[in-house]
Design brief:
The protein has 367 residues and is α/β, with parallel strands linked by helices. The chain has one domain: Rossmann fold (3-Layer(aba) Sandwich). The chain is built from 13 helices and eleven strands. The strands form four sheets. A five-stranded parallel sheet has the order 6-5-7-10-11, sandwiched between helices. Strands 1-2 form a two-stranded antiparallel sheet. The protein has a two-stranded antiparallel ribbon with strand order 3-4. The longest helix has 39 residues. The radius of gyration is 25 Å and the shape is elongated.
């Protein structure tokens, strides 16, 4: 009987000890993965190789810049509703090698102030977009919005609502917050191909809001947006191994074409909301497709995904589509050469302004 009791005690003990050993092994494996990820993701060469355009990759790059260089753009201001925006009352800032950056008291690019009440007899044109609309790397007067203003003369006010790094979700929120208050007659949405993917992100140049789709409804997430101090404080508790898995997972989804499909669905819903909000404000909407980098070359004559998407969306919903790419490609074929890396220069902004004005006139949106 004594021997039986020893066997009874010894038998159940084996599974328990095996479970403890397995638990310790799993804990050690996870600890190793976490330490490895933390070491690997601080090496710039490794981060550049594995990082794509997912939230984790953008957040890690922002944290690295913030801790080592104090951030990328000193003219940015934190926005709890849009993540970041152009700081108001910037005067004579030498932000770029080829121009000066100014902003008015409401954070719009340039020195000119605008009242919320529209002056009598003036046509107001609001231009929304990302860094190409904002005019990164050029001065205030060189942006295509500013050059369109000169082409239009005193009969119109062209207001530059461009902010670098914005997706259509942030542009929509910006119009709801500020654009509608200026009583616009015409709203031009500057559309760059890669803006579509930004609509899937909660972190890009900084933390940002994001809309999810629930059926046909847009649900706002990551709102209000955490402040820089809150983001940095949360980094102490984030798992770098989870970040690494997220980066790899998003890379696989991109290869399978899932990212493109998701971005088109969300972008369509955002453009629908933009179109409805502009109409409710008593204004008309036009979408201008802005070609960037390799799209400016003649050998890139085949229609891009974003370009064909814009054409299809606008045709389906009766929105004027103004494709600026043919203007650039035509000039390139006749011997003019453009930058295919980085942002537009002053000449390229001028071409965009002229092509935009011609397109708006053709669509009967300008006299």
């Amino acid at each position: 009987m004594f021997a039986t009791s020893r066997r009874a005690l010894r038998g159940p003990g084996r599974p328990a000890s095996s479970a403890i050993a397995a638990g310790l092994y799993l804990f050690g494996l996870l600890a190793f993965c976490e330490v490895f990820s933390r070491v690997a993701l601080v090496v710039p060469a490794v981060l550049k190789h594995v990082a794509g355009t997912c939230d984790a990759a953008w957040r890690l790059r922002w944290v690295s810049r913030e801790l080592h260089t104090g951030g990328a753009y000193a003219f940015d201001a934190y926005s709890p509703t849009r993540g970041w925006t152009l700081r108001s009352n910037v005067h004579g800032w030498r932000a770029f090698d080829k121009g000066v950056l100014n902003s008015n008291s409401h954070g719009l690019r340039g020195r000119r102030e605008y009242t919320y009440d529209k002056p009598a007899g003036v046509r107001r044109i609001e231009v929304f977009g990302d860094s190409f609309t904002f005019g990164e790397e050029v001065g205030d007067d060189a942006t295509f919005a500013a050059q369109l203003q000169r082409l239009m003369g005193s009969s119109a006010e062209v207001m530059n609502f461009g902010v670098h790094g914005y997706g259509h979700d942030q542009m929509l929120l910006y119009f709801r917050e500020e654009g509608v208050r200026y009583q616009p007659d015409l709203v031009v949405l500057g559309f760059v191909d890669w803006d579509m993917e930004r609509n899937l992100l909660e972190f890009r140049d900084f933390a940002k809001p994001r809309f999810d789709l629930a059926g046909d409804r847009l649900l706002l997430r990551n709102f209000p947006v955490p402040s820089p101090d809150q983001v940095l404080a949360a980094e102490h508790y984030r798992s770098r191994f989870v970040d690494l898995l997220a980066i790899l997972y998003q890379g696989i989804r991109r290869q399978l074409g899932r990212t493109q499909a998701d971005s088109e669905r969300v972008t369509t819903a955002l453009l629908d909301a933009f179109r409805e909000n502009v109409a409710a404000a008593g204004a008309k909407l036009a979408i201008a497709y802005l070609p960037v980098e390799g799209e400016l070359l003649p050998e890139a004559d085949a229609t891009r995904d974003g370009e064909s998407y814009v054409a299809h969306y606008c045709q389906q919903h009766g929105v004027p589509a103004i494709d600026l790419r043919p203007a650039f490609v035509g000039l390139e074929k006749h011997g003019e050469h453009f930058l295919v890396r980085g942002h537009w220069n002053q000449r390229e902004h001028h071409i965009a302004a002229e092509a935009l004005q011609a397109g708006l006139r053709q669509a009967r949106l300008l006299p």
